[in-house]
Amino acid sequence: MRTLIVSLAALSAAIGTAQADTLGEAMTSAQESNPTLAAQRQRLRATREALPQALSSALPQVSISASANASDRDSDNPLLDGDRTETWSSSANISQLLFGSGRVLASTRAARAQIAGAVADYEGARQTLLLNVTIAYATVRQAQAVVTARETTVSNLHRLLEYAQAQFDAGVVTRTDVAQAQARYAQARTQLVQAQGAMAASVEAYRRLVGRPPSDLQAPPAATGLPSDLENALATAVDNSPTLISAQADTRLADANVAIAAAQGRLNVTAEAGYALGADFNDDTSESSTDSVGVRLSVPLFQGGAIRSRTRQQRALRSASNLDLAAVERTVQETVTNAWTGLASARAAVSSAREQVQAAELAYEGVTLEQETGLRSTVEVLDQEADLLIARIALAQAERDLVVAERQLLAAVGTLDVPAGSGGVIENNDQLRGR
Predict the structure, then answer these.
(1) Distance of alpha carbon 398 from alpha carbon 418, whole angstroms
(2) Domains identified in the chain, total number
(3) What is the span of the domain harbouring residue 37?
(4) Is residue 14 one of the residues assigned to a domain?
(5) Residue range 147-197, pLDDT digits in tens
(6) Does an H or E element contain 61, and which?
(7) Cα 165 to Cα 180: distance, rounded to the nearest angstrom
(8) What is the pLDDT of residues 277-309, one digit of tens each?
């Protein structure tokens, strides 16, 4: 156990002596280097290509082709045997959709909806990452505070054990007092090792999200931009919640898919032009060319009911998407309400925990002094030390919960972001073309 204590203590010392870090810097580092968010960013860029692909159907389609052929003919007739021909040909064709019964417009609407949904999903992933970084940051600080509190307890109980042993040697107390102090001291050492192990785990969780181990983490400032009341929070979520925006985009996509499916059974008008040139390699006078210009009209008359079936399918999916949107609205309302009440509870808990620590410290000092005058027993001092430790741990938990609750509310309404002045803003050069 001594080796484990030394290694965990070295980890704590390494964290404490590193360069100071802030929550904003941790968020910036995570946003710039987290591979999960980077993968989501690439998916967004891939989705943005849906718009130029949809628009391409309304633009001219140009193609060219060329070929060369050689053929030998064998025959039982000596006059025909050995006949060899070598020819070449080339062509250029252009077509332009003149009327597509709304298919291109619907495809463009679908692409824009896809992009809006992907942007919302990316923003949701980014805010989730920032919230997770906040939780990891606050958890590391909580773990450090718990380790510090337990180290103080171990030190206090060690002194109390020495005092009880001295009192026993002087014949003032019994062996029971020494055993009680020794048991509490051993328990405190075990709990200290457990706290150091929990801190090591929280450090690794922080490293996974941020990309580097935590340095001397500074106390996070109070979050800015918090809604003033619950009604304001709900209204903000309607405009900013990535989950809600993504669900709204899904309904627009489903509506566009209905129009795309219906357009497959309607009239298409296309203008076409072509030029072809060909000749025999061995005959210069054989060269010929062909020009063509025309308009093609196409209407599917019978497809076995496939088009109508796909249209009914997309309409059912549109209805499902609208119902999903209603469910998401309820979920967002629940999430925002719970985040609001959780923040109020966290603020009250911090205030109560600070009062508890102050009272427990005062009580411990008093009991310790009274023990020296013989007014308090060893077990009473041990119990008061335990109460003080509980109060300190509760304060560390309450402070951690407050930091997280503030950012949870911002994430619930969709406005969680890296604090201003933290630097490292990711440039977005992949602008939406054709918007």
Answers:
(1) 23
(2) 1
(3) 2-59+105-257+328-413
(4) yes
(5) 999 999 999 999 999 999 999 999 888 899 999 999 999 999 999 999 999
(6) strand 61-73
(7) 11
(8) 988 877 777 788 899 999 999 999 888 899 999
